[in-house]
Amino acid sequence: MNWIFCAALAIPLFFASFFLFRLWQSLSLIKKSLARLAKKDFRTVIVSQPLGFFSKTAQDLQTLSELLQQQEQLLLEEGFSLKTILTSMAEGVLIADSSLKIRLANDALASMLALDRSPIGRNLPEVLLNSDFLRAASETFSKNSAQTVEFALLRGNGAEKSERFFEAYSSPVSPVPHLSPNGTSPLTKSAVIVLRDITKLKKLETVRKEFVANVSHEFRTPLSIIGGYIETLLEGDMNDPASLAKFLSIMQKNCERLNLLIADLLVISQLEHQSLPLRFSNFSLQSLASRIVEDTAPSIAGCRASFSFAFSPPNIELHADLDRMEQVFLNLLGNALRYGGTAESPPEIKISASLQANFVEICFSDCGQGIPYPDQPFLFDRFYRVHKDRARNAGGTGLGLSIVKNIVLAHGGTVTLQSTPGKGSNFFIRIPHQKSPSQQDTVARIQNPEPSV
Predict the structure, then answer these.
(1) Domain 207-445 belongs to what architecture?
(2) What is the assigned CATH class of domain 89-197?
(3) Is the pLDDT of residue 32 over 50?
(4) How far is CA 178 from the centre of its chain?
């Protein structure tokens, strides 16, 4: 009877143990799965053969795992898209909270502001200390409205310090819930700030204003002279033949000056708008130089200038636009005649050329007063004159060297200056010896080396 009683007791104990083991096994698997999800491991949870009353929990756990996987994939895609957009933007972008702490920033911002470390986690005043900018950022939160501001920053150190101009657009964004450690859910205010470097636009605006002012001044002077003499003649000096001849001669000279200025302005306009065609051909440099000197013989004689040539080899041929290179030679020669000498010493001008491996180098040298070092970086700018009064009296328009630079650049070449004050100047032109693949035999469009105004 004892063994029957033991058997009757053992069977329920066996099933109870088996049930408890299955229960512990299911709970253990669910616990491990929850711990894995808590560690942001969102791989699909599979609870094998759960007990009946755990099957719904297991299904919910699997569904939760799949939803978390989808959300993680969505966040990854959105994060990748956001990163791609921010990385590809030329503008600097940052997101700051109401305490002006930076929460997000792109690489363009760090590059634009020359930051030595990431701005994320730092306060705005640490990254960009400008009162106008910081006031606009603060007003974005206080007024809950978009703000736009322009400001300037100094970049670099010492002699390399330069002023950069920026435009900042700051806009509030809708607050998002953020769980704090104490369990509350405050709404965090944020603002998106877009920073744009407008230094080139500011410089272009300055160039435009200076261009208009210079053109106005250049036209005003000869027109005032012509108008003054016309008024004098109308008041009665037409009856004096000597005065009439003198006044008309002066008026004619100023009319020629206006025509020359207009012609140079048209050339500059065509160069900058890429509408001036270049017609390439082969021609002798020595023949071109000789013809230019012969054509300017009266001016050379008036300046008592002396010339020398040095071509190595003598029969150098250039593949370029003959008319435009003639214009380059005329402008450089005219510049040397005007400024290549002094009152005591007439101009001594040397035109040389040498054939290099890939280019032809042409040099115009003089032994004049040279060009002051502070003026040399601006010598090829439009209307720039080292000696303004002397230049106007000599009849220059202030556009000659700018035209030279544009034409040489259009040929794929370079023009440089070497000058020592009191010891003369050397203008070096390098033109590719062989035509480049982009050059056409008949017409090539000029590339714009300067901003158009």
Answers:
(1) 2-Layer Sandwich (3.30)
(2) alpha beta
(3) yes
(4) 41
